[in-house]
Amino acid sequence: MKATLDFTVVVPVPEPGTPRFQGITTKGRATMKAFIVRFLQNDSGATAIEYGLIATGIAIAIIAAVNGVGTTLSGTFSTISGSLK
Predict the structure, then answer these.
(1) Which residues lie below 8 Å from residue 23, measured CB to CB, with a gap of 6+?
(2) Quick one: how many helices (H) and strands (E) in the chain?
(3) What is the domain partition of the chain in residue ranges?
């Protein structure tokens, strides 16, 4: 028994003269200028950088706190160890 599968592929075809990508066409400098202006006005990456800087500041604070506590604990354990001998 042989199984067959029939299907149809629908591919949207843009109208002639319609740009394939929004804001990018082959018309030249004016469109490229609009693309660059829109790229420079997009500030969504700035938010990610700000969150990264906040996370870095928190990490530095945690490292400093753990380093200070570690030094204190090391001295405490040394004192306890000396007392036990």
Answers:
(1) 31, 34, 35, 38
(2) 2, 0
(3) 46-85
